[in-house]
User: Fold this.
Amino acid sequence: MFKYTLFSEYSLVNLLNDQIYLNHYESFNDPFECRCEIFSGFPDKDSNSERIGEIIRAWGFDDANDVSALANYEDLILSLEDTEPSVPKTIESARICCFSKTEDNLLMWAHYANGLRGFCLEFDHETIITEDTDADIFEVLYELKPTTIDTAVSAVLIDQVDYNEDAIYETEKRLEYANLTDEQKENARSEIHMYKEYLDSVHSKNREIYQKMLATKSIEWQYEKELRIILQTENLDKAGVFLKYPIQSLKSVIIGEKMPIMQRQTLYNIIRSKSKDISVKIATRIPGKFGVIINEFTE
Assistant:
């Protein structure tokens, strides 16, 4: 994953400190950032709303018209009263850092790296986020119109996480401490496997909703091939936050061809002061083509 940036005091300090900066979405140049249509409240069972089917499927039923699900739908509503998450609060408290999948994108070099006068950091997506951080990497979705978020569906999915985690815990304890027959033990293990599979499915659905909220853009932006690191904070203001990365996750630094010689040397010295394992490359224009090629940098 590649982070295009200007040559500036700010970018050099971040490089020196092994950190990236995560912004509030309003600091980005797309006026449609995090814009989505929100549906809230549980629809009445007799309303014929299409949302009911989505809610029932989130509840774990394959058939949106399942007789048992519909019979217990009102009880579900009562049990989840006032539990719907706040989409605006989630969006406001998220902090985002933007990357690209490609290192040779002409428009990215032009718009974010000062027309080949800046540089590009290449990170290993598997190691850039440490285990003690709640941040995660999301691929940006490119759509023709803003996405829709149903907070009733989200409430059901969150409840399903709690339900299945409790079921796994209780079944594991029963397996550990209860005097079970071999057949009962095998059944308990099968139950745990079933709960874990469904829990993975619920987590995947929750992640998809979060992605729609915070990583969806107009199809006009698809040339960026964007990835995002997103961190959920407790911040109530719009201030950004720094996120440390392990130095070994920085694989290479690509210098833009038009960066002045003195700046190149400054950048190179900083990189080498940090690690000899970081590859230093240069992006140069290809003669006779509208394109750039990435080669090893030589002093």
